[in-house]
Amino acid sequence: MPWLQLAVVLLFIFLGARLGSIGIGFAGGAGVLVLCSGLGMTPGSIPIDVILIIMAVIGAVAAMQVAGGLDYLVQQTEKILRRQPKHITLLAPLVTYIMTILAGTGHTAYSTLPVIVEVAKENGVRPSRPLSISIIASQIAITASPVSAAVVVFSGMLEPFNISYLDLLMIVIPTTLSACMLTAIVCNFLGLDLDKDPVYQARLAQGLVYKHTNRTYTIKPKARLSVIIFALTIFSVVIYATLISDKLGIIQNPVLPRNEAIIVFMLTAAMLIALTTKINTHDILNAQTFKSGMSACICVLGVAWLGNTFVAGYIDQIKLVASELLTNYPWLLAVTLFFASMLLYSQAVTVRALMPMALTLVDPIIAIASFSAVSALFVLPTYPTLLAAVEMDDTGSTRIGKFIFNHSFFIPGVIAITLSVLFGFILAPLVV
Fold first, then answer.
1. What average pLDDT does the structure give for the chain?
2. Does residue 45 have a pLDDT over 80?
3. How far is CA 331 from the centre of its chain?
4. Can you spell out the DSSP letters for 356-391?
5. Residue ranges of the alpha helices (H) in 219-346?
6. CA angle 418, 420, 421 (to 5 degrees)
7. Which residues, including other chains, have CB under 8 Å from residue 164's CB and lie 6 or more apart?
8. What are the pLDDT digits (tens) for 299-349?
9. Do 300 and 153 meet the contact criterion of CB atoms below 8 Å apart?
């Protein structure tokens, strides 16, 4: 029966991956139905806290987008990239990393991808080099964002071990950023140069590679103000979470716990943006970031519920096997998180499903060091930002191979996560 139930879980995850986008969440819910009504399992817990945090953050991000904030950031991004075009493979991932850190979602990378492709082509740089590491950076940065659901939920799990929210950020930000930048250097040597790439040459001969046209931006009058409000809100979140932490204890028995505070801060930021920039709030519902974020909520609901249902049913057996393995080989936690996130399709879902159990089996330092491994969403080439990068690169250099895993993002992703975990094992004991 356990193997049959596991097969059902994997089957519906596979079906969800085939459907793509929000369909992953639909398939997860269907999998719960089969496990519970057909195979006698008890429904697992729904990650309500994760969903609510994502909803609140996405609401604020979408308000900023409607106010013109994202266009303003993209305009500044283009200025940076055009100022140092030869270093685009280093600068592009830095930009997507920072935007994800600020927004708490990697979906902000969409708006920068056309700029990256254009600047790369103009300067004879193979677009797959900056594009691949930029997408990877936008995924790994989720584990370093002060307002991402993955970081918020994980930091809550660490509080009983006297490890604060700020401690976690002091580890994950430098380790993930340095790993992404080192991987960007490696990416400069991946793939053939454009003048030697037969795919590019064939597309060029067929007229499928388009020349750059001057991009014009219509920046709304108060776009910059929306960015400032959002940035100040993130700063406030970090300060508040630090003040109420058990380690500092400056604010005892806070009225608003950390998760609720982040939700309230983000909703307040959205209100302030709407009021000060005078946007039509109905437009927020049609914003690309809002649609992507709400899709992510459905995905988290379905897939996390499916995973939690199976894990909860065999938690004692899993702990028994995992305890012996992790005691002898603690680095296996990172490997487990890597493969779990590949299937669960979300950093926050993976944290919610596996970290509570992991923290009962290993030292919290090992869990923190392994944290960035929950970002293996690139392994299966079905993630929306990954597919968008492939579609936008008209040179054909960013592509998915015939064997599914041989795509442009696999090697940069594995290298970046490996380095992040390695750096985590070095830095975490020094901070905690």
1. 88
2. yes
3. 22
4. HHHHHHS-HHHHHHHGGGGG-TTSSTT-HHHHHHHH
5. 223-243, 258-277, 288-299, 305-313, 315-328, 332-344
6. 65
7. 155, 158, 242, 245, 246, 247, 248
8. 888 888 888 888 888 877 877 777 778 878 888 999 989 988 887 778 888
9. no
For the cut 70, the answer to whether the pLDDT of residue 250 exceeds it is yes
Q: What is the pLDDT of residue 215?
A: 64
Grade residue 139 by pLDDT with cuts at 50, 70 and 90: very high
Token pair 């290993």 is at which residue? Answer: 362
Q: Angle, to 10 degrees, between the axis of helix 305-313 and the axis of helix 347-361? A: 20
* Contacts with 202 (C-beta within 8 Å, 6 or more apart), sequence order: 396
DSSP string, 43-110: P----HHHHHHHHHHHHHHHHHHHTTHHHHHHHHHHHHHHHSGGGHHHHHHHHHHHHHHHHS-GGGGG
Tokens of 355: 């970290």
413: its two tokens: 């992703």
Position 10 scores a pLDDT of: 83
Task: State the DSSP code for 256.
Answer: S
The two tokens of residue 235 are 């700063």
**Token representation of residue 421:** 């975990």
At residue 93, the pLDDT reads: 95
200-204, 305-309, 342-346, 411-415: which has the highest mean pLDDT? Answer: 411-415
The pair of three-digit structure tokens given for residue 148, joined into one six-digit string: 């991402």
Q: Please tell me the distance from the alpha carbon of residue 373 to that of residue 83, in angstroms, as a whole number.
A: 33
CB atoms within 10 A of CB 214: 4
Per-residue pLDDT band for 204 (boundaries 50, 70, 90) equals: confident
C-alpha distances (whole Å) from 135 to each of 91, 100, 347 are 13, 10, 15
User: For the whole model, what pTM was predicted?
Assistant: 0.86
Beta bridge partners of 400: 407
Q: Please answer whether residues 365 and 432 qualify as being in contact, where contact means their C-beta atoms are separated by less than 8 angstroms.
A: yes
Rounded to whole angstroms, the Cα distance separating 364 from 375 reads 19
248, two tokens: 């500092």
Q: What angle do CA 312, 379, 106 make, to 5 degrees?
A: 85
Residue 77 token pair: 């991004």
Cα dist from 394 to 208, 211, 254, 305, whole Å = 7, 10, 53, 38
- Report the first-to-last Cα separation within the chain, whole angstroms: 42
